[in-house]
Amino acid sequence: MKNKIILLTKTLIRNGDGLSLKGSSGFAKAAIIATFAILLPMIMIGISALVINLANALKPLGQEGIILNLGISICAAMIFVFGIFYIISTFYFSSDVENLLPLPLKPRQIVGAKFLVVTIYEYLTTAVLYLPLWLSYGIVTGSGFLYYLYGLIVFLLLPITPLAAASLIIMVIMRFTNLSKYKDAVKVIGAMLGVFLGVGINILVQSFGEGMTQEQIADLMQKGENSLAGLASGIFPTTRWGAEAMISFGELSGLFNILIYIGFSILVYMVLLWLGELLYLRGVVGMSETGSSRKKNSSFMLEKEVEQSSVVSSYFLVELKLLFRTPIYFVNCVMINFLWPIFLLLPFVIEQESRSMLQKIIPMVNNPDIVGTILIASFSLAFFLGGTNGTASTSISREGQELYIKKYLPVSYRQQLTAKVLSGFVLGVSGIIVFVACAVFLLKLSLWTAFLIILTAWLPILLTSLTGLLIDLYNPKLNWDNEQKAVKQNVNLLYNMLIGLLFAGVTWILLPFSSNLILTVIILLAVYGLLCVLLVKALFTLGVNQFGQLEV
């Protein structure tokens, strides 16, 4: 059984091109490698600096262990949240399901292999947070060899319990409900559940320690010996055992905790295989991916819309319908525009300190003398929000193997590209309006300032929509068998995000002019309006020509 699980795992990874660079040009491969070679170290260095500063501050109090406990708990929570969607897609809606069912494989072997595939993908995302946490803490505390050994074991086994919990939840739902006719709804609900869980974790983390009095916290602080570490324990018992093993690596309790951690993780995996034998097969029947029908329907939808309205507007409506009805597109291209206001403004609602700070900020943002500065800040924020919106930067990639169909439609390339830009633009502006509405409610922002923000902030959204589409035209990811690979594993989104951050930084050059509100508005509209005009021209010339040359 183990050999078959390992063999099947290797096959699934080899055939799943989500992490490969197959089909990319030499330049694209080099750009992707260079981007990650620069970006990932920067992120990990930032996390390391934070861990080092916190550890140095808490070490004299003997409370540095809380960093490990809290960090590992956050990693486990992230694995569980993202795992829910990964499990749904990999276990039930992957294109390889139909091919695996006729093979002489037991359900537990398929479950075991797919579970390991998801685990490997989780390693790649979790490592960005865990590795700098593990190494930086060890350096600051001067930990010995056993600490690093225990830390490696914790990392390797960390995804098992959260992913097993997510897998069992999904398998039970699929086993006892007939959801084969509602696959899209299942995906959407699963993804939204993950999002809500993420928000809940954010609230939990940000409200850490609020349930205790200052005297209780002070007593624990004075006690030392990492007495605060237990406060950061997550919902999974393995996180505490792993953290305690690393904290007390030189003691017998450390060995005891790591052995419990290993034993419990193995037990959870075995229970998962056993329950998979009972639950998986019945749930997976009739649940294979039917993405091709969605693509075929899109052409029918377009023909129907063309009969009722103009070409551009009808194509635009079809783009929106496909974004809303395809769960992975809905989460990454639609919902992302409305989640950022929640995550950015949430601390002002749930944190006591942030609520106190809010009362000090309100008079400041309503000072007429700094409206220009607020415009520049909101303009920069709009660039960030526009860059993270993957609607335009994945619009060509989302066509996939069916791209050729678009070339036979009675719609010019120019009109098709215009509709794709509009879809990203409309969703992005909608997100800005929601953000401004939240700011008006929380910060008591004047309606005049809110109007000026919306008046100017649409330009960054349009600009990043244009750059995103141009990037995707010249480096599309068309060879995919799962919608997830078209968006979540598409490096074009990262490129556009970096462009958005670059423009956001450049915008602050205008800060010396912020005292003159009219001049600030004129400069923003003139400079970035001109850039948008140039990009539109590039799209209608170079972009149209590139679109005509694209082949799957």
What does this structure look like?
There is one protein chain. The chain has 552 residues and is an all-alpha fold. It is built from 23 helices and no strands.
Total helical elements: 23
Question: What share of residues is helical?
Answer: over 70%
Order of helices and strands: HHHHHHHHHHHHHHHHHHHHHHH
In percent, how much strand structure appears in the residues? under 5%
Which whole number gives the mean pLDDT?
77
Q: How far is it from the N-terminal to the C-terminal residue, by CA? A: 39 Å
Overall outline: globular
Structural class: mainly alpha
Largest sheet: none
Total separate domains: 2
Number of separate strands: 0
- What Rg do the Cα atoms give? 25 Å
Contiguous runs where pLDDT drops below 50 for at least 5 residues: 17-21, 205-232, 288-297
